[in-house]
């Protein structure tokens, strides 16, 4: 670390808690990674939680002459969110939003994820305008700072055009809130010179008719190359110019601390179609016609190579799987309307336009949400899919350009020719055709100077083609970043570039805000600090470090995210081959066991967000697995009845100790680190299993009821007065369903605890034992099996899909069986006014979260479902690593209204953590249904 950075970090510790200032090699490498193909390792990382802390960072940066880069989610693709100086990461304090004017506007902090802003607006039938493909991960600060758009956003619903007001902190620490008249008046006085500079630049442009027309032309296209100097001619007030210049400025002009958007309608009725053309020209002419006269929301172009790449995906029309010629292209079209009748009219109108261009195949417009979701998921996954099949050691580059729409076909052909000329045969082209916006991605290797020069030649050729020949945009929506900074002058010309340089100088005269991004004097900055992607492990080698996994990870904010675990493991593996004695490798090894392996929940939720399904938890379990079979695990598996009895006795002691139990447990854990720490929401022991009701009639439906070991151990609710088994049997009895237990119930376990601990042999033995018991009880599959704990259901259902459990068994998770076979046979006698619902990660992975929510809606007037992908209890880790659960649920209490005093889930251990960290009692779905279907006693 340089002396200046050391002094900066020391001084900053007086204003920001030391625990949020990072200078160690693990943290700086982990936080320094974004989705681009550049790698810069910051010398200092600081996590800020409020505007005041940002002010201290900027003041000290000026004093110590160190550069600062702001970072939101790190999904940026062009290198604008990495730094070798000071990286400022947004903390939880910036993850807030407030709906205004009945949904017409929304005020957002920069750390809120875009999809969560839309979730706030959903009850009002509104959404924010920008809709990048990364919206489930990207944060508002990055969306605004990059002027991100997306598939349906077009050029009129991006951040620039839907901006209502913003709050910005400039490099000198001054704050302007354009929605506050007092703030604006004070800023006019304090920063009159800056505003005068903007007014003069505006006047100079207006005096140059050719320059003004060029700017207007460029912004008829999607364009994020350089600064948004259209602000200087779109507005007359320098305050408005300043606000709109901040959009797309990529952190080089100031820090956006808050933004208020005008929202746009989110029409509930939608239909999508895939339309195939044998000729690219006809396909592109159809796009032009659709833009001019069809009521379509989005049209995505998919070229021949991309079509071949998606032929391995399921759920697409048959014609996608046929032979694809080199001139073939496909359109993915979506139309939306406020009602079904209007949607039907729009479909007819769109089909009429398409028919004029004689498509070779047409799926027809589907209104089925599942079908539409499949189509769009495939399109969104094209970029990562390229990364998933790339040779190990190569990286993935995605660029996005915009051609005038009349030249769309020429653009596709000419870009394809460039790929062939430079030997990038794997390259794909796809994009937002209505705007002439084409994305292309390919997988260069940067391991030799020759490969770097090949890439440089390709980029120079692209610049000459797009900006030179066609007057298009080298960056349509991904931001200029480092990759296109050397080409800004070429695209815009000397006069416009001089305006941009003047803007940078006026806002940031010391060049401390994200230097070399947008404006750079280094003509080769796009070729420096290129990211190495060395082999690490086959489980994760295809990771492209996009970061889509991070919002689903409960250790995000505690230790590492899945992306960061992979980045560090890659570096460790690289060093172990090239410099095994290095101090850097020793530093990583000293801490990786805890921050990487032990604190990983290993629930696999990262895989559900990863476009190519990488389960980082698999690697962590592999790294943490015992080197030899665990005798303790095998003993526990063979003596499961005794193990659960011992656990019940421990729970009994915990209840007897009362308030002093936590203190005793912490004291014992200092001597015996493996001892669990029962959270405050831990119930008492479950009582003996109740006897099932006998069959009353020969034709009475039957079910084999497997009571999970966790529900045989833990009572229902904190007071321990009931059990999941008792609630379930009462439901079955009311529904007229006869339940039977498998033989040896007390000794059965699905094997999940052993599998999580890496004790494979014990897990396999448990699975074999449960298979034999269920086959016998179910009469070899003739009777369905009810599994009363969601993680156990997932374990057994997945094992059956993998061929490790007899296919004759008819297995049912709680939500599916209760929704389909039990609730229809019951009468609801009462409902709760409000109910919190947590869909456990196992339910999400089985795809039954919707059924759990439907059951909850049947039992409550209103449900609240906080956006928590994984609570972090992770089996036994909630007892042994309670900080993981606390971190995963750190936002739970604040997300629940005060009027909501009860919760429900379908994982017993998750319910313990939810109860502990919410202050509400979370019950099983069986207990909830039992309560709501119990007849009220007659009044006397």
From TrEMBL:
<keyword id="KW-0809">Transit peptide</keyword>
<dbReference type="GO" id="GO:0004458">
    <property type="term" value="F:D-lactate dehydrogenase (cytochrome) activity"/>
</dbReference>
<keyword id="KW-0479">Metal-binding</keyword>
<keyword id="KW-0274">FAD</keyword>
<dbReference type="InterPro" id="IPR016164">
    <property type="entry name" value="FAD-linked_Oxase-like_C"/>
</dbReference>
<dbReference type="GO" id="GO:1903457">
    <property type="term" value="P:lactate catabolic process"/>
</dbReference>
<dbReference type="InterPro" id="IPR016166">
    <property type="entry name" value="FAD-bd_PCMH"/>
</dbReference>
<dbReference type="Pfam" id="PF01565">
    <property type="entry name" value="FAD_binding_4"/>
</dbReference>
<dbReference type="InterPro" id="IPR036318">
    <property type="entry name" value="FAD-bd_PCMH-like_sf"/>
</dbReference>
<dbReference type="GO" id="GO:0071949">
    <property type="term" value="F:FAD binding"/>
</dbReference>
<comment type="similarity">
    <text>Belongs to the FAD-binding oxidoreductase/transferase type 4 family.</text>
</comment>
<feature type="domain" description="4Fe-4S ferredoxin-type">
    <location>
        <begin position="532"/>
        <end position="563"/>
    </location>
</feature>
<dbReference type="InterPro" id="IPR009051">
    <property type="entry name" value="Helical_ferredxn"/>
</dbReference>
<dbReference type="InterPro" id="IPR017896">
    <property type="entry name" value="4Fe4S_Fe-S-bd"/>
</dbReference>
<dbReference type="GO" id="GO:0046872">
    <property type="term" value="F:metal ion binding"/>
</dbReference>
<feature type="domain" description="FAD-binding PCMH-type">
    <location>
        <begin position="38"/>
        <end position="266"/>
    </location>
</feature>
<dbReference type="GO" id="GO:0008720">
    <property type="term" value="F:D-lactate dehydrogenase (NAD+) activity"/>
</dbReference>
<protein>
    <recommendedName>
        <fullName>D-lactate dehydrogenase (cytochrome)</fullName>
        <ecNumber>1.1.2.4</ecNumber>
    </recommendedName>
</protein>
<keyword id="KW-0408">Iron</keyword>
<keyword id="KW-0285">Flavoprotein</keyword>
<dbReference type="InterPro" id="IPR004017">
    <property type="entry name" value="Cys_rich_dom"/>
</dbReference>
<dbReference type="Pfam" id="PF02754">
    <property type="entry name" value="CCG"/>
</dbReference>
<dbReference type="Pfam" id="PF02913">
    <property type="entry name" value="FAD-oxidase_C"/>
</dbReference>
<dbReference type="InterPro" id="IPR016171">
    <property type="entry name" value="Vanillyl_alc_oxidase_C-sub2"/>
</dbReference>
<dbReference type="InterPro" id="IPR016167">
    <property type="entry name" value="FAD-bd_PCMH_sub1"/>
</dbReference>
<dbReference type="InterPro" id="IPR017900">
    <property type="entry name" value="4Fe4S_Fe_S_CS"/>
</dbReference>
<dbReference type="GO" id="GO:0051536">
    <property type="term" value="F:iron-sulfur cluster binding"/>
</dbReference>
<dbReference type="InterPro" id="IPR004113">
    <property type="entry name" value="FAD-bd_oxidored_4_C"/>
</dbReference>
<dbReference type="Pfam" id="PF13183">
    <property type="entry name" value="Fer4_8"/>
</dbReference>
<keyword id="KW-0411">Iron-sulfur</keyword>
<keyword id="KW-0560">Oxidoreductase</keyword>
<dbReference type="InterPro" id="IPR006094">
    <property type="entry name" value="Oxid_FAD_bind_N"/>
</dbReference>
<dbReference type="InterPro" id="IPR016169">
    <property type="entry name" value="FAD-bd_PCMH_sub2"/>
</dbReference>
């Amino acid at each position: 670390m340089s002396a200046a950075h050391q002094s900066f970090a020391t001084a900053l510790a007086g204003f920001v808690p030391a625990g949020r200032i990072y200078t160690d090699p693990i943290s700086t490498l982990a936080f320094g990674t974004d989705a681009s193909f550049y790698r810069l390792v910051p010398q200092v990382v600081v996590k800020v939680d409020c505007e005041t802390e940002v002010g201290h960072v900027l003041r000290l940066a000026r004093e110590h002459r160190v550069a600062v880069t702001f970072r939101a989610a790190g999904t940026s693709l062009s290198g604008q969110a990495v730094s070798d100086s000071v990286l400022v990461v947004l903390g939880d304090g910036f993850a807030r939003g407030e709906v205004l004017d009945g949904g017409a506007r929304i005020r957002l902090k920069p750390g809120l994820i875009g999809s969560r802003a839309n979730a706030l607006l959903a009850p009002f039938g509104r959404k924010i305008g920008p809709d990048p493909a990364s919206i489930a991960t990207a944060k508002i600060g990055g969306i605004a700072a990059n002027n991100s758009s997306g598939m349906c956003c077009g050029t009129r619903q991006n951040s620039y055009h839907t901006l209502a007001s913003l709050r910005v902190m400039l490099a000198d620490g001054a704050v302007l809130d354009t929605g506050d008249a007092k703030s604006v008046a004070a800023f006019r006085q304090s920063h009159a010179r800056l505003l005068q500079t903007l007014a003069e630049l505006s006047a100079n442009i207006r005096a140059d008719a050719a320059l003004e027309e060029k700017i207007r032309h460029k912004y008829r296209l999607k364009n994020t190359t350089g600064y948004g100097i259209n602000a200087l001619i779109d507005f007359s007030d320098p305050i408005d110019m300043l606000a709109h210049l901040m959009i797309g400025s990529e952190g080089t002009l100031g820090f956006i601390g808050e933004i208020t958007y005008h929202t746009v309608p989110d029409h509930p009725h939608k239909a999508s179609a895939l339309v195939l053309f044998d000729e690219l020209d006809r396909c592109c002419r159809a796009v032009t016609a659709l833009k001019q006269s069809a009521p379509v929301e989005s049209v995505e172009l998919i070229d021949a190579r991309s079509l071949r790449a998606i032929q391995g995906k399921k759920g697409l029309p048959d014609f996608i799987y046929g032979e694809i010629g080199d001139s073939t292209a496909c359109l993915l079209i979506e139309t939306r309307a406020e009602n079904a009748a209007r949607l039907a009219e729009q479909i007819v109108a769109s089909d009429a336009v398409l028919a004029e261009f004689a498509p070779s195949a047409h799926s027809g417009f589907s209104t089925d949400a599942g079908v539409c979701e499949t189509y769009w998921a495939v399109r969104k996954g094209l970029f990562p899919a390229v990364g998933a099949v790339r040779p190990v050691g190569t990286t993935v580059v995605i660029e996005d350009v915009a051609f005038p729409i009349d030249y769309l076909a020429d653009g596709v052909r000419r870009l394809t020719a460039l790929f062939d000329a430079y030997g990038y045969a794997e390259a794909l082209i796809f994009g937002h055709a209505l705007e002439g916006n084409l994305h292309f991605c390919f997988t260069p290797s940067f391991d030799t100077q020759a490969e770097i020069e090949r890439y440089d030649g390709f980029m120079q050729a692209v610049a000459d083609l797009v900006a030179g020949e066609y007057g298009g945009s080298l960056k349509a929506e991904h931001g200029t970043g480092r990759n296109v900074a050397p080409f800004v002058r070429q695209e815009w010309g000397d006069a416009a570039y001089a305006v941009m340089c003047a803007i940078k100088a006026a806002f940031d005269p010391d060049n401390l805000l994200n230097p070399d991004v947008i404006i750079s004097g280094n003509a080769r900055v796009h070729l420096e600090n290129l990211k190495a992607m060395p082999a690490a492990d086959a489980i994760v080698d295809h990771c492209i470090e996009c970061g889509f996994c991070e919002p689903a990870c409960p250790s995000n904010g505690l230790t590492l995210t899945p992306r960061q675990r992979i980045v560090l493991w890659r570096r460790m593996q690289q060093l172990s081959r090239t410099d095994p004695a290095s101090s850097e490798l020793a530093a990583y090894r000293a801490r990786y066991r805890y921050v990487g392996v032990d604190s990983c929940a290993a629930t696999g939720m990262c895989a559900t967000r990863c476009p190519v399904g990488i389960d980082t938890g698999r690697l962590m379990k592999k790294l943490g697995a015992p080197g030899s079979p665990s005798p303790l695990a095998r003993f526990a598996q063979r003596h499961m009845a005794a193990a659960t009895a011992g656990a019940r006795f421990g729970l009994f002691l915990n209840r007897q100790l009362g308030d002093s139990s936590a203190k005793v447990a912490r004291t014992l854990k200092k001597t015996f680190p493996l001892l669990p720490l029962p959270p405050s929401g831990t119930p008492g022991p479950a009582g003996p299993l109740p006897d099932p009701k006998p069959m009353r009639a020969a034709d009475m439906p039957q079910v084999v009821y497997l009571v999970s070991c966790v529900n045989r151990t833990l009572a229902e609710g904190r007071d321990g007065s009931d059990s999941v088994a008792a609630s379930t049997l009462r439901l079955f009895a009311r529904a007229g369903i006869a339940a039977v237990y498998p033989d040896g119930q007390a000794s059965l376990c699905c094997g999940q605890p052993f599998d999580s601990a890496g004790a494979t042999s014990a897990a396999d033995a448990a699975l074999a034992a449960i298979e034999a018991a269920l086959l016998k009880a179910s009469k070899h599959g003739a009777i369905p099996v009810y599994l009363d704990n969601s993680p156990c259901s997932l374990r057994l259902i997945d094992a059956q899909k993998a061929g490790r459990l007899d296919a004759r068994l008819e297995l049912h998770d709680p939500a599916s069986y209760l929704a389909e076979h039990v609730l229809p046979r019951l009468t609801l006698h009462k409902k709760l006014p409000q109910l919190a619902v947590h869909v456990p990660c196992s339910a999400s992975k089985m795809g039954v979260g919707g059924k759990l929510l439907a059951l909850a809606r049947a039992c409550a007037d209103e449900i609240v479902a906080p956006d928590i992908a994984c609570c972090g209890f992770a089996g036994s880790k909630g007892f042994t690593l309670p900080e993981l659960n606390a971190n995963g649920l750190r936002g739970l209490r604040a997300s629940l209204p005060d009027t909501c005093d009860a919760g429900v889930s379908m994982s017993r251990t998750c319910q313990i953590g939810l109860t502990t960290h919410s202050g509400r009692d979370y019950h099983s779905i069986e207990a909830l249904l039992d309560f709501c279907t119990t007849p009220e006693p007659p009044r006397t």
